[in-house]
Structures are given as C-alpha cells and as structure tokens.
Design goal:
Length: about 210
C-alpha cells in the first residue's frame, strides 16, 4: 500500500552504518528525510549520497535528520562509503540503512516491480516532528535527484505549517508568499502587518512573515 501525504510514517528497526536504529526514536522531535537508492556501487547513487553529505549544514539548519536506505547488506554499505568519500569529496555524515530483507522497502512501497522487481526506486519521504509524511517523491533509477529542491520544499513546509500562507511556483526562502484562503479579507491587516496585495480575490500576497 502506497504511503500518502498525512499518513504516519511507518516505524521500523534496522541495522545502519551508524548502528541499530529504531526509526521513530531516532527521529525524536526532528523533521526527517528517508530516501532510497537502487544499489550501492552505482554511479548516480554515489553522486546522490555524496551530495546529501555535503548538504549537512543545510539540513542541520532546518532541524532535519537524513537517512538513506537500499536493499544492500551492511558490509556493502560500509565498503561503498569509502568510494563516496573519495569520489565526492566528503566524509559521509548520516546513516545508510541495510535492508536486505526489504522490511523498510516494503513498508514504504519503495519497490515498483514494473520498473525493477528487486531494487528500490529513488523515493523520498519528508516526515514532520509528529511523524506525519509531508512529501513523497519518486524518481527513476537513471535520474539523480535535485536535493536543493528537497530543501526548498522543507522551507515551504516549515513556513506553511507555522503561518497561514502557501508558497508559489519556484518560490525560494525570502520571496513573497500567498495568503491562505482561510484568512478573511478583514483579517489581513492584523495577520499580515508587513503588508499585503490583492491581485485577485483568490490571489493575495504578502512578504514572507518570518523574514
Ligand atoms: C546508478 O546509480 O547509476 C544506477 C543505479 C541503478 C540503476 C541505474 C543506475
């Protein structure tokens, strides 16, 4: 069964390159990103895991813990880390789950048999501190993901969870936001003291409330 937005992220226990993890306990009060890759010792995956490692400060600034998973065993992950570090100019700084029995892959529906019946696709799950799934993404094996976009979505999720705004297409942190349609016109001045613009009755914008 596919995981849908708003579902509770399935909990699991797993062996990782940083020891045993009980997923919900490991997340604690943080936001989390669980992402799968098809296989160790493959080129696109090597660049992806290195990229995420190099973005460590960006994830930390947003209070996000990151964890990777594939169906490869722990020995393979541990050997591969040396290659990631060497070729991607990094020191891996987050755990990779070993999931040879597909406990995590099945719980999160990461194997799409019509694409490949043994390997996980490139899934991404963003999970909030209440353990609710807030974003799902699925990329094919031949396409490496844009982790800047995932950071951008985290920025939007954290903002729109706190304020009655939404973010427009290609929004970036600091840009103007869209005022939620749950805000009545006579509440605008009080709720958005930085100002607002009514472009259409359903399209009202405001400077980003927390910047
Ligand atoms: C890769 O990471 O390059 C890759 C992995 C599995 C299938 C295709 C490409």
């Amino acid at each position: 069964m596919a995981i849908r937005l708003g579902d509770t992220a399935p909990d699991f226990r797993a062996e990782t390159t940083e020891g045993q993890v009980s997923f919900h306990d490991w997340l604690g009060e943080s936001w989390g990103i669980l992402f799968s890759h098809p296989a160790d010792f493959t080129p696109v995956c090597t660049t992806e895991l290195g990229t995420v490692s190099k973005l460590r400060d960006e994830f930390a600034a947003r209070g996000v813990k990151v964890i990777a998973v594939s169906v490869d065993p722990i020995g393979s992950h541990n050997e591969w880390i040396a290659d990631i570090n060497e070729t991607q100019n990094t020191e891996m700084n987050y755990p990779i789950i070993a999931d040879p029995d597909r406990i995590v892959a099945d719980a999160y529906d990461m194997i799409h048999p019509n694409a490949d019946d043994t390997l996980t696709v490139r899934s991404v799950f963003v999970i909030d501190p209440a353990k609710k799934v807030r974003l799902t993404l699925t990329y094919p094996a031949a396409t490496g993901r844009n982790f800047d976009e995932i950071l951008r979505v985290v920025d939007s999720l954290q903002l729109t969870t706190k304020f009655q705004v939404a973010t427009p297409a290609i929004w970036r942190d600091g840009d103007d936001c869209i005022i939620s349609n749950t805000v009545a016109d006579d509440e605008l001045a009080a709720k958005f003291p930085k100002g607002y613009e009514t472009i259409k009755p359903y399209l009202r914008t405001t400077p980003q409330p927390n910047r």
